[in-house]
Structures are given as structure tokens and as C-alpha cells.
Amino acid sequence: MRIVVSTINGGLDDRVNQAFGRTPTFTIVDVENGEIVNVQVVANPGYSQPRGAGVTAAQFVIDQGADAVVAGSFGPNSYGVLQAAGVRMYSAPSTMTVREAVEALLRGELQPGVQGGAGMGPGGGYGRGMGRGMGRGMGRGMGRGMGGGQGQGRGYGRGRGGW
């Protein structure tokens, strides 16, 4: 199993970074038979991008062969890309080290990934709205059908979720 963890500096003793798309590094941890067998620190290619950091980071993680990703929260775009690729997402607090987060994941103690965004507090994030607007045409060709190319596809609603 390959687990990718959002980190600042990287390594098993670094803490889990709350950002996914704009995390400076990813710590890639390979686990076999419940034991950590390999650890690798790689730079996040989306870290300094002015736009699209989450999608770039998500695609990079997919290309690395990740089975699971651990971060504090995931932006709506990276969440959608990872979900579509079948990569499981988990949330961990910034008080956890990478080693602790991996061990907690293996024990089944981490919560499924939270879809959130910068500056949102607990309970925030994007709810599943009805998506009745025309969209901005940024569907990247994923939505087939209605709307004459106006982005009527997947349309994650932008309603602010409450508690």
C-alpha cells in the first residue's frame, strides 16, 4: 500500500500539513504487511502555481501510485480528481506526525478526507448544492450533455456547509 502524506519538510517525524494542494512536500510511505518498508520525500509540483495547485498536486499523487492520501483537508478540485481516480482521502490533525498518521490509518482510526478550502473553519467547506447555475465553463470536458458547453457537468455546489 502506498500512502502519500502532505508535509512541510517531509519525513516520518514531520507533522501532517493541513493543506493538500499547496503543501510544499509529500512524504510517500510504502507499507507491506502493516510495516513501513520505504519512505520518500518529494516536492509538490503544484506548491507555487498561481492557479490549479490542487489539481496539479492530485494528478501528481495519482501518478505516484497512491492508494491513500493524508492531509488536513482537500480543496474541491483536488477532492474531485482524487475521488474520480479512486484514491482514498483521510484527514489528520497537524499535531500528528507522519508516522503517527500512517499508523492510525492502518488501524482504521483516521476520518475520511474533509473537503474544505483556505480560511474555512471547522464545519465549513463546500456542501453538495443543487448546482443549478450555468457554471463557468471550467468542467475540463468531464460533464457530458446539457448546456452547450457551459459546464453543466459534475458541478460541485458551492453552498457553505454548516455544522
Outline of the structure:
With 163 residues, the chain is α/β, with parallel strands linked by helices.
> How are the strands ordered across the major sheet?
3-2-1-4-5-6
Stretches where pLDDT falls below 50 for ≥5 residues?
A: 118-134, 144-163
The fraction of residues assigned to DSSP E strands is: 15-25%
H/E element string? EEEHEHEHE
What's the SSE blueprint?
Layout: E1 2-7, E2 25-32, E3 35-43, H1 53-63, E4 68-71, H2 76-84, E5 88-91, H3 98-106, E6 111-112
Parallel strand pairs: 1-4, 4-5
Antiparallel strand pairs: 1-2, 2-3, 5-6
Helix pairs in contact: 1-2
Report on the structure:
This protein has 163 residues and is of the alpha/beta class. 18% of the residues lie in helices and 20% in strands. The protein is built from three helices and six strands. The chain has a six-stranded mixed sheet with strand order 3-2-1-4-5-6, with helices on both faces. Helix 2 links the parallel strand 4 (68-71) and strand 5. Helix 1 packs parallel to helix 2 (76-84). The longest helix is centred in the middle third of the chain and has 11 residues, at 53-63.
Keywords:
163 residues; alpha/beta; six-stranded mixed beta sheet; globular
